Amino acid sequence: MVSKEKVNTMFIVAYRLINLRNNSRSDSTDSHIAETLLANINEIDKLSIDSVAELCDISKSKLSKFVKQIGFDDYKEFRDLVKNEKFRSGYYGYEDKLPMGRYIAKEGMESYLKILHNDLDCFMEKTNQEMVRKLAEALREHDEVAAFGSVYSQTAAVDFMYRMAEEGKNIRTYTYDLEQEEYMKNMDEDTLVIIFSNSGQYLYGDGMRKIGYFKTYLKRTKGEIALITSNEEAAMDPIVKYPILYSFSTNVHSHMLMERLVMEMIIAEYKKLV
Questions:
Q1: Which residue has the higher pLDDT, 176 or 32?
Q2: Cα 235 vs. chain centroid, distance in angstroms?
Q3: Which residue, 72, 166, 230, 248, could crosslink 78 as a Cys pair with Cβ 3.0–4.6 Å?
């Protein structure tokens, strides 16, 4: 059996299955397949297409159509990605980073709060306020704006969408990564996309590829891109027009909190302009 800690390193496969399940009728075949695959995700890399089809109580052809529906060429690609995600320790270049939840479980809340205090000092000292202002100006100037992220960072994008709606500015977001990709492939030069990505790996793939392996469609994008990240190399990438870089005082990452602080800074600057 795979340890519970390794289950938490599931990224793109579980993410797509969860999104499909949440956007399907609870009594639909797609919902049933997604729930079955999620319940057995730690065993899929050892199972043939026949075994998984039987597990889901569907035909092989139906299973093949399902994995294509969630963005994979065939069952083999789906199974291989499950296997890769199952055994990797985290995003490339970020394997030594410790999520705050894991740290709290091991060291306790009091110890974490001391780290958070230092992180906040680091955040205020190093975050580029001028770049935040420039992004707020771009946000005001663009009629078409979207905010995207992956997994936890996507929750920041959703929060940002709602917070901006409170300020009278409507922006788009999609929780499903394939819909995000389709949007960015087709956006024009008048579009601004704000990406929340602590690791910076949103630019390069699904977190399984090293820096430098680019999402090819982003190289051809016509719109403007803002990146909110703790990855200095990603922030310096030429396609990023508005890099907002934050940092941490230790290897414990509280990025879900930092992303929201950046979000509130952007909104505060935006409110000064309207």
A1: 32
A2: 16
A3: 72
Does 206 or 187 have the greater pLDDT score? 187
CA atoms of 61 and 155, how far apart (whole Å): 34
pTM passes above 0.90:
no
- Phi, psi values for residue 56, rounded to 5°: -85, -5
First to last CA, the chain: 56
Q: For residues 269 and 83, what is the distance between their CA atoms, to the nearest angstrom? A: 44
Distances (CA, A) of 45 to 49, 77, 110, 203, 245: 10, 11, 39, 27, 37
38 φ/ψ sector (left φ>0, alpha ψ -120 to 50, else beta) = alpha
Tell me the C-alpha distance between 261 and 259, whole Å. 5
Stretch 233-261: mean pLDDT:
92
Parallel/antiparallel/unpaired status of strands 252-253 and 240-245: unpaired
Domains along the sequence of the chain with CATH:
4-87 (1.10.10.10), 99-273 (3.40.50.10490)
Backbone CA torsion sign across 55, 59, 62, 68 = positive
Distance of alpha carbon 258 from alpha carbon 245, whole angstroms? 10
CA 254/CA 92 separation, integer angstroms = 18
CA distance 12 to 30: 18
**Could you tell me if residue 195 is left (phi over 0), alpha (psi between -120 and 50 degrees) or otherwise beta?**
beta
Predicted local distance difference test score (pLDDT) of residue 176: 84
Distance CA 14, CA 256 (A): 19
